[in-house]
Amino acid sequence: MDKLLYLLPLLACPIGMGLMMWFMMRSRHSDTAQPPQTAPTTEQEQELIRLRKEVEALRSEITPETAPGKDGTP
After folding, report:
1. Rounded to an integer, what distance in angstroms lies between the CA atom of residue 7 and that of residue 66?
2. How far is CA 38 from CA 41, 61, 62, 70, in A?
3. Which residues does 47 contact at the CB level (< 8 Å), separation at least 6?
């Protein structure tokens, strides 16, 4: 019985580590479930179209100025 008391602290570390790993793996599996994706609303689609047009306009503003060779520079 005395020897058993000496073994308990030695077994506490590996058993505790195993339990922590099990709990961590268990929580990780529940986190990977992705929520169902819903279709974008009409308002979101309109905002996306507006933003795409804005990006296109900004790109067309920048591109001619930075195009190489226009002023003789490479």
Report:
1. 74
2. 9, 35, 36, 47
3. none
**3-class SS of residue 35:** coil
Confidence band (pLDDT; 50, 70, 90) for 30?
low
pLDDT at position 21 over 60 = yes
Instruction: List pLDDT tens digits, range 33-71.
Output: 666 778 878 999 999 999 999 999 999 988 765 555 555
Question: How far is the first Cα of the chain from the last one, in angstroms, to the nearest whole number?
Answer: 87
2: Cβ contacts below 8 Å, ≥ 6 apart = none
Give the integer Cα–Cα distance in Å for 56 and 13. Answer: 60
Task: Reduce the secondary structure of 38-67 to three states and give it as a string.
Answer: CCCCHHHHHHHHHHHHHHHHHHHHHHHHHC
